[in-house]
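The aim of this short unit is practical: by the end, you should be able to scan a pair of folded records and say something sensible about each. We start with the first protein, listed as its amino acid sequence and then its structure tokens.
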Amino acid sequence: MMVVHKDLHVPMRDGVHLAADAYHAEGDEPRPALVALSPYGKELQALALTIPPQKRPSPLWDGCIEAGDISRVVKEGYVHVIGDVRGSGGSEGEHIGNYNAGGVPLGQDAYDFIEWVAAQPWCNGVVGMIGISYFGSMQVFAASERPPSLKAIFVSGGHFDFYETTYHGGVMWFMPRAAREGRGGDSGWAFTHRHKSRMLETYSEEEVKRRVAERLADPDVAAWPNLVHVLNYPIHHESWFDIITNEVDGEWYEEQNPINLAKNIDIPVYLQINQGRGWTLDGTIELFDVLNCPKKLEIGPYPPMQTRPWVDEHDTMFRWYDYWLKGIDNGIMDEPSVKVHVEGTRHWATGEQWPVKDVEYRPLYLRSRGKLAFEPEPYGVEVAHPEGFFQAPLTITDKVEKLSWATEPFEKVTSIHGVGAAHLYVEIDQPDTNFILRFWDEAPSGKRQLVTTGFLKASHNELDERTSEGNPYHPHTRSEPVEPGTINEYVIRIYPFANDFRVGHKLVVELMCNEPLVDDHNSLLPPDAFHLPVGRSVTHTVYRDAKHLSRLVLPFVSVDH
């Protein structure tokens, strides 16, 4: 039998109370607790007790039921404590902005919540945390505050650099709208108290009007009805309004950025993320590199975001917590620090850092007739003609144009592990566009699987001092319109991946400025997991001559591996 403590009132240091439910097995024995915190509502999480795990495209799949398998947590000898952050669910207080609720850092609330849980008679004073996505990010906030009773965390699928959660390469991503408002397979935030826009709270009415007018002047925004609606009527879409009016990185995103806070963490951290969501994988690896504590990184198999209610990764999570919270020596700390599921050959590779194998960056050149090759075009410059595509806005067409290049079938298993870069010399006839790259592993049968992606808004082409060969970084702190008719080199970051291309398989790369709403990859993701299309007609011309060697720079695993 299970004991349930409903509607607990957890006091914060400023007098606000957060709502929580606690689940544990019968008996008076105190147990370690696993805390889950989010704005999605504890009542929604309780559905994990009655709804079997659903895989997409089940209509019962709900991307916000992410606090974990309550029955399993209780069976394993833990107390599962699920709480609502302030301003959501049954909790008091206001929520303003993103990770700063009513002027109170969410990590501070998490500290108070954890210490309250540790002092309850059903808890033995030892606490960990649980949950994927937003729940995972909350663990980093909590650990950075160093609550004494928090002994370890297991972070699955967290979102860290908040700008990179909302704009990929400067291109707006619609998924945060679904997570906040409840659209297409996500119930969204449990807005039961007043939520406030950080922009409306901070700036004068005149400044807000100026920002709104500036965003409405962007043809991409102006062509998307939902964005026009939110900008004119923000009152019920506060968080989404803030995101739309902050199209470049800066103070609003950096406040309470988990990557910046991670240096404060001194307890053991296990990071888990699946391939196929390149942007969150990038942030997870960045967080792993910043951490200075006992740590492990696991990059799991494609595809991501499958089972809801979330029940995945529990076996590893309980091994982690049995070791750190119960003192059971199960050997988990004797295993390698990094574990990666390599797509293609579908095996696990291990090491002490990412990538787990030594790599060397090699170029693959864009060639005529849609070819990718290790050598540039062998003919003269006059033969290496440019190629391109014209994309009309989706207001007048539903066809997404693209260019495609492919290697010859690999004659031996070819391993590519790490981040990469695409150097594209492109002329456009407008001040801006999107560059969207998709990399596929194509079998001889024609069946293909997504390998990774890359995004860049043309006006965000500036690189910063972190950039190295094959590893570009864009600050995204300003937008610089492109001079139409000029040939510019655009360096696009290719998100981390690990893939072994088997004999007979090809690497296929597609370039587009919009993405199809349904294809081999998007059909595996929730609705709204796509990016803001270009709102104007744009002609893209890609150059491949001797002066403009458009190419990919990719991390090939060294032959001695």
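Turning to the second protein, read its sequence before its tokens, just as you did above.
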Amino acid sequence: MKVTVDFEECLKDSPRFRAALEEVEGDVTELELKLDKLVKLCIAMIDTGKAFCMANKQFMNGIRDLAQYSCKDALVETNLTKFSDTLQEMINYHNILFDQTQRSIKAQLQTFVKEDIKKFKDAKKQFEKVSEEKENALVKNAQVQRNKQHEVEEATNILTATRKCFRHIALDYVLQINVLQSKRRSEILKSMLSFMYAHLTFFHQGYDLFSELGPYMKDLGAQLDQLAVDAAKEKRDMEQKHSTIQQKDYSGDDTKLEYNVDAANGIVMEGYLFKRASNAFKTWNRRWFSIQNNQLVYQKKFKDNPTVVVEDLRLCTVKHCEDIERRFCFEVVSPTKSCMLQADSEKLRQAWIKAVQTSIATAYREKGDESEKQEKKSSPSTGSLESGSETKEKLLKGESALQRVQCIPGNAACCDCGLADPRWASINLGITLCIECSGIHRSLGVHFSKVRSLTLDSWEPELLKLMCELGNDVINRIYEAKLEKVGVKKPQPGSQRQEKEAYIKAKYVERKFVEKQPAAAVSPLESGTKVIPQSWEEKRHSAPEKSLLAVEQGAASPKVIVILPKTVRSSDSGIQQSVDDSREHLASTVSVNSLYEPEGDKQESSVFCDSRQLSPGLHLYRAAFEKNLPDMAEALAHGAEVNWVNMEENKATPLIQAVRGGSLVTCEFLLQNGANVNIRDMKGRGPLHHATVLGHTGYLVVPEYDNSYWQVCLFLKRGANQHATDEDGKDPLSIAVEAANADIVTLLRLARMNEEMRESEGLYGQPGDEIYQDIFRDFSQMASNNPEKLNRFQQSDSQKP
């Protein structure tokens, strides 16, 4: 209830004024009680909400424990982990809601009670005091006798001063009353509006989160329906098998025990036999025997390690034993010992004897093949992997990723609103975001922004390096170039969500603040002018021991003189060849791309000029080779097609140029922004072909450390088709084999084996074997943290000229 007090009535000090004061004072007292009660209820709600979050977190941890327990069931583990991560996000949103509630309701209303109502109470005390003094002065003035002139004058002066003071205090009191009555409305509604906006944000974030989860849940529901159908079918099959087995007669004489020397699991035959101990008592014990890997072994329990009876069946014989009292016995004799065994029937004894004899014959036949297999097994599959004693480095995640990314200029605050300590990132833009802006970025779609948590998600090394190459300052110089010109005000951390959402859409979707490019001049590609890339010219002077570039004016294409290392490792014998021997097999001048193009069909070299004169597609194409991520981001902001095709250079794409430039981070940036890993050039070669070709480390024309191993690993992880062939009918594996590049051959063969294994087991869309994933993770970690281990052919200091 709003009650105002008139200033005129205050000067009169009329009964109406006193009645109004009494009404206001009662109303304020009741208001204070209501606000105190509301604050206490808010505190109780916040405490209860935090307890709910704590219980919810414990429940989420229980789901994660169940997921870890179900690690052998990929479907259960993957889905439970996905759901627990989503619940963790909701817990974070709840905590944010409770923090906002505490600021908007508890803190704001408590401030109103402690400051504004307290001022009202202080003013009331002063008014009551001066009002009492005024009453006393009036009474004293009335009581003075007429004939006492001195007392009359003194009482009159006191009354005048008291009335003047009363009017000032009364006017101040009335002012405080009216201000309080006016402010109470705004303070109460402001706090409630903030509280409701907090709820709006909470439910919007939850809606966005579960909207992304919706298709995933729908797919899971379809899988569960199929699982139910499969389970019902399996149940019927099991019931039918159960009925069939019940009808059979399993007497000891009718038991059949077959053997198979070509069994997939390597076990030729297995079953129970009695074994006579070699101790003094000659006791007989029943054990589970099996013939596997040309050995005769047994075990007491399934979890026990098998005990080897015969190391090599080629060195033993088997015979019947009729000179002991027990029936169905046979003996396996090796050069060092003999083993007496007993079957349950004559038929089983004959089956075991025949199985041993057949295994002996098979072992002799496979002796040569086994030796070759042992040699292959003993040789290292890849020289880039370390021994098992060296611990595997895990993916950077959590606080490590947060600290590294926030060290980049501008990343300590949200790229779009400036809120400090952002915990989210857009991996294709290379920026950091606060939680509210990250929710808005999610709503834009992954074709505009791919959001990932800096603390909750795992970070691959190449992705972390990509984040460190860009940053908020770089991206804002591009996407906010015209911000001041258009007169748009950038949102602040406290701005409303609608304001932030409109700004972010204008910035990234509509690109209203990107500086327009001037009209493109005639491209050197169109005019035929040949320009030497500046980066190559700098590298020519900085690394003379690796390559030397000499451009001939008027030639069909720039010529590159390749200075070979003093020693080149042979792919077969490992011997060292001299530079002179190597030069006999390599022409002294080759074009930039002649290492992987037939003679007579060499392409023109990439021609670059000022980026302001290039079309966005050509700008992206040039920057991809120069490994200039800020320029690439600028080209995309200007509308460059990430899969742009350069018709002047064999229909090469920016991703192929990134491979030629030798940068893995550049490739990762293009892939994160939607580059197709399987688009091929005019000669039928995709990025995987080019990365494999550039694995000729000893002959690289790009005078830079060789990233081809990591690029091959990256493209295989991103679904590159390794079966695609170029115009010469060669796939990447054939090229790597011809180049004798052991590491790339190993990666391609492992990927092919993993693909075949997934197809044979029906695991379409699944990552496949864990060992395969571990090896690829090792390659990524090594290329990120120990790149020198992959640079096999790098010259030593003693070899450098």
